[in-house]
Design goal:
78% helix, rod-shaped
């Protein structure tokens, strides 16, 4: 009677192995798809990332323009005190890319 009892419990004991094996098989099959998707995601730039990069470039360009303008004003003030004429004012140079 004991061997029949053990045989009856055998499917219950192995069901976890079957589920684990099936999950592993699914993971192995979907792995190449996940790898390719991750590679495409890393290789491309989303619209929000492009907007962030453009905003960062604009802020840097505006900061550089502000520094050039302040230096020009200081130089112009010094030259006017000596009775000389000022050089032309700096021109805003927008960053490269789409405008």
């Amino acid at each position: 009677m004991k061997p029949n009892f053990l045989v009856a419990l055998l499917p219950l004991a192995l069901c976890g192995c079957v589920v684990t094996a099936a999950k592993t098989a699914v993971d192995i099959v979907t792995l190449p798809v996940k790898v390719v998707a991750k590679g495409v995601d890393l290789a491309t730039t989303s619209q929000s990332e492009a907007d962030e990069n453009r905003g960062r470039a604009l802020r840097k360009a505006e900061e550089a323009f502000g520094k050039r303008t302040r230096a020009w004003e200081k130089q112009c003030k010094s030259l006017e005190a000596d009775g000389k004429t000022c050089p032309p004012a700096p021109i805003y140079d927008p960053p490269e890319g789409k405008r």
